Amino acid sequence: MGEFSAPILRVNKLNKQFGAGCSHCSGKHRQLDKNYCPVCATVYSCQDISFDLYPGEVLGIVGESGSGKSTLMRCLYFDQEVTEGEAYLTPYKDGSSNLFQESSQQKRFIRNHLMGKVYQNPVMGLRMDFSSIGNIAEKMIAAGSRNVAAMELRGSELLERVHIPVYRMKEAPKNFSGGMQQRVQIAKAMSNNPPILLLDEVTTGLDLSVQANVLDLIKHLQRELNISILLVSHDLGVIRMLADRTMVMLDGQVVEQGLTDQILEDPQHAYTQQLVHSML
Ligand code: ADP
Ligand code: MG
């Protein structure tokens, strides 16, 4: 936990909208219906999202479906382009360059070397017909690895670490259970030793016992490797289990952020109060 060190990732006023906006919704005091302009149908999925992520910390992002969590993660991983905003990564050009202004080639470098992402839907993160170890090799090749033997060794170490048995490494993820598919995604995301992991609803839809196992795995890996994690979930229980600090999103905006314990004990925003009370 690095509250006293400099952030590893700084995000400043990230905005993502779908649609061009109109005179009704473009002003400072726009009247939206949740995140949606009733006049021109523009969706304001992320509105002025700002936060810091510290080395070795887990920052939880919680909010109901449609609050903009996945859009935020997609923007940070360059799956989608932001409408506006800045992000600075300390391991990249000493944190001096806004990542969103970088060339697509540089973005690819950042994504392959400095970040790993696990998607809610494993189809988004894996090639279901490739071997599991081949999926991992793909990310290593994208980051410049060429030595097949070294990649096999690293891939099998990673799969062992996420508890995929050695004899199943050549099997395709389509043969695996949902929990195992998420484990392969986690192994792939970690393959280049990135300092940051983006986890988007990684356990949503899994059986509770499987969910607990995957969360436990994440917790152990995080402690062992001291990775910084952005952990997105609609489930406050998941956030409570893993996140040091938490950010609460509603309709594309951050309505509250602070230490997870404090948010659970003394939620300030009406929406957070409702979330906390519904968990008890
Ligand atoms: P969450 O992950 O919190 O459930 P999302 O980030 O998926 O929320 O969605 C946030 C909002 O953005 C929703 O209102 C959603 O309908 C909208 N949205 C997401 N992607 C698009 C898109 N490609 N076009 C239009 N609206 C979108
Ligand atoms: Mg989502």
TrEMBL record:
Keyword Oxidoreductase part of the UniProt annotation: no
UniProt cross-references to CDD domains, sorted A to Z: ABC_NikE_OppD_transporters
Keyword Cell division: no
Alphabetized Gene3D superfamilies for the sequence: P-loop containing nucleotide triphosphate hydrolases
Domain ABC transporter as annotated: residue spans: 9-276
Keywords: ATP-binding, Lyase, Nucleotide-binding
Protein name: Phosphonate C-P lyase system protein PhnK
Gene name, Swiss-Prot/TrEMBL: phnK
